[in-house]
Write a structure and sequence with these properties.
- Helix 3 crosses helix 4 and helix 7 packs across helix 8.
- By secondary structure, the protein is α/β, with parallel strands linked by helices.
- The chain folds into two domains: 182 residues, Peroxisomal Thiolase, Chain A, domain 1, CATH 3.40.47; 147 residues, Peroxisomal Thiolase, Chain A, domain 1 (3-Layer(aba) Sandwich), CATH 3.40.47.
- 49% of the residues are buried.
- The longest helix is centred in the C-terminal third of the chain and has 23 residues.
- The chain contains ten helices and 14 strands.
- A ten-stranded mixed beta sheet has the order 5-4-6-7-1-8-14-13-11-12, sandwiched between helices.
- It is 33% helix and 22% strand.
- The radius of gyration is 19 Å and the shape is globular.
């Protein structure tokens, strides 16, 4: 075995509150009941979880809370403690605060100290960025074990008191697509039975001269009364670009590893929405691979989603199985992919 191999030992995830179905969501937003059927048919996301109580507006969970739970589960599953962690990395687009960094608050909660910590400020590719940084640091001899986290708390960007039917479609689609959640993985140069090797990671910014597909604003005391829309998504641009970018990065992962499509046993595709993921998988054309998707059940949880996919895929993989995960970020267009192999 190559001593620089980095293994995924375990995964943990966390969701806040009960699942919110489309009928409950549309009723809370004050829209006609037929909107629930529209979400089912055209978005394909059936349920999601929110970090606030929809009825009272009371906050249930912070991103720190969710990451603490996911990270604690991952460590326990690997049979490790805080003292075994050599570095902590978090990928998120929605930290609890600008400062302190959420990754440091999570480390404090878990009892981790005197180690390097990193926070990747990114959209749907942030979790893959975190995996990449952890893999490179561990491979270079910077410790043996990393706790890698990813999560988002998107509901805080939505005004649930607004007239939903009067919102621009670019705002409407975000309310029905996104949910909140967190995930974590323990990576190590020392394998455990059942672990998978993280063979390769590809990350490429491809947004030169392209307008952002999604914008999420920050407001402070000085501009809190700004009339800028907090979150806007160009869903049409995403529909057009994501399938192509997913295919591009899949080809690059396979070329870099000298694998063929027939070598893929599990495909972890981008998780934008139920219908969008179906479109992407069809376009990728990897019929021999088992699809691992969860967005229809938990919503688009951003940087948490790769961990929910890994949580489903890893127990099913046997020796010799190979898996490829893909992610595309529309904020400024990043394509990402990673490959795992059970050995």
């Amino acid at each position: 075995m190559n001593s620089t191999d980095v293994h995924v030992l375990s995964v943990g995830t966390a969701l806040p509150g009960p699942a919110v179905d489309n009928a409950t969501l549309t009723r809370r937003l004050g829209t006609p009941a037929v909107w629930a059927d529209w979400i089912d048919s055209f978005i394909g996301t059936r349920t999601r979880h929110f970090s606030i109580d929809l009825e009272t507006g009371e906050a249930r969970s912070s991103l720190t809370d969710l990451c603490e739970t996911a990270g604690g589960k991952a460590l326990a599953s690997a049979g490790l403690s805080a003292a075994d962690v050599d570095l902590v990395i978090l990928g998120t687009s929605s930290p609890d605060m600008l400062m302190p960094a959420t990754v440091n608050m999570v480390a404090d909660r878990l009892g981790i100290d005197d180690v390097p910590t990193y926070q990747m400020q990114s959209g749907c590719c942030g979790a893959v960025q975190a995996l990449d940084v952890a893999r490179k640091l561990l491979s270079a001899g910077n410790g043996r074990t990393a706790l890698v986290l990813g999560g988002d708390n998107s509901v805080k960007h939505f005004d649930l008191t607004a007239d939903f039917s009067a919102l621009d479609p670019a705002e409407q689609v975000n309310v029905v697509i996104f949910g909140d959640g967190a995930g974590a993985a323990v990576l190590s140069t020392e394998p455990l039975p059942g672990a998978a090797v993280l063979r390769h990671v590809v990350l490429r910014l491809v947004g030169l001269n392209r307008p952002p597909g999604q914008i999420v604003e920050w407001f402070g005391r000085g501009d809190r009364n700004s009339d800028r829309t907090p979150i806007v998504e160009d869903y049409k641009a995403i529909e057009e670009s994501v399938p192509r970018l997913a295919a591009d990065v899949l080809d690059q992962v396979l070329d870099d590893l000298d694998w063929s499509e027939a070598d893929i046993d599990y495909l972890l595709p981008p998780q934008l929405s139920g219908r969008m993921t179906e479109t992407i998988v069809e376009a990728l054309g990897v019929p021999g691979a088992q699809e691992v998707s969860c967005v229809a059940e938990i919503g688009n949880t951003g940087n948490a989603l790769p961990f929910f996919q890994l949580e489903r895929a890893l127990p099913r993989m046997v020796a010799g199985d190979r898996a490829v995960g893909l992610a595309v970020e529309s904020s400024k267009w990043i394509k990402a992919g990673y490959a795992l192999e059970k050995v």
